[in-house]
Amino acid sequence: MLKARDADAPGVSSSEKTRLDLFKFVPFRLNRLAAELSSALAIEYEDRHGLDIPAWRVLATLGFRNDACSAQFISQCTRTHKSTVSRAVTALLQHELIERVENEADRREFRLRLTKKGRALYEELFPRLLRREEEILACLSAQERKQLSALLGKIEQSLNLIQTSEEADAKPSY
After folding, report:
1. By the 8 A CB rule, do 110 and 103 touch?
2. CA-CA distance, 56 to 63, in Å (whole number)?
3. Contact (CB, 8 A) for 100 and 93
4. Judging by DSSP bridges, how do beta strands 98-102 and 110-114 pair with one another?
5. d(Cα 107, Cα 146) in Å, to the nearest integer?
6. DSSP 3-state of 8
7. What is the DSSP letter of 1?
8. What is the distance between the alpha carbons of residues 119 and 150, in angstroms, rounded to a whole number?
9. Helix (H) or strand (E) holding 27
10. Residue-by-residue DSSP string for 48-77
11. Phi, psi angles (nearest 5°) of residue 8
């Protein structure tokens, strides 16, 4: 972005004055970082197990929960479009990594949970992903990691995003 004094400099056009510098625009930066981090982590489950990012998100969401949940929960929790979640669910069902279970409260709805095979895969993958995360964050000191976590939490909170599995379990729309 142009600084105020630079915008008034001779020879600076009006289109340059209003130009958005994407590399300083926080949503752009966060999106780019998220995409890059997802790709870096995907190596752990794509090459070895043939899972794409949406399939991993479904598997990971079911893996951290104690109870079965709906595809809608997964979509809301991961901020992944419901059609993308649906395709991932279909693939995971075909590979017998997840299964549908009847919802006791509403027999028209099915919930999803990991199969034993799916749980074993999750248990194998998450330590690798945590190690990879550690490698990625190695450029930050312990204090900087705490600060990053706190700052991300503040932004999530300001957007009313669920921040813990306990919050997700307690939220009726999930």
Report:
1. yes
2. 10
3. yes
4. antiparallel
5. 44
6. coil
7. -
8. 30
9. helix 26-49
10. HH---HHHHHHHHHHHH-SS-B-HHHHHHH
11. -90, -5
The residue among 86, 83, 81 whose CA lies nearest residue 100 is: 86
Q: Within 13 Å and on the Cβ side, how many CA atoms surround 78?
A: 26
pTM for the full predicted model: 0.80
Phi, psi of 102 (to 5 degrees): -70, 140
Query: What is the C-alpha to C-alpha distance for residues 156 and 51, in angstroms, rounded to an integer?
Result: 27
Query: Chain-centre distance of CA 50, in angstroms?
Result: 19
- For residue 59, what are its two tokens? 């598997």
Distance of CA 14 to the CA centre of its chain: 39
Extract the tokens encoding 80: 């992944």
At the topology level of CATH, where does 23-139 sit?
Answer: Arc Repressor Mutant, subunit A (1.10.10)
Reduced to 3 states, what is the DSSP secondary structure of residue 114? Answer: strand
Q: How many CB atoms lie within 10 A of CB 157?
A: 10
Phi, psi (deg, nearest 5) at residue 19: -70, 135
Write out the two tokens for 34.
Answer: 């998220």
Local structure of residue 18 (DSSP, 8 states) = T
Per-residue pLDDT tens over the stretch 54-106: 999 999 999 988 789 999 989 988 999 999 999 999 999 999 999 999 877 77
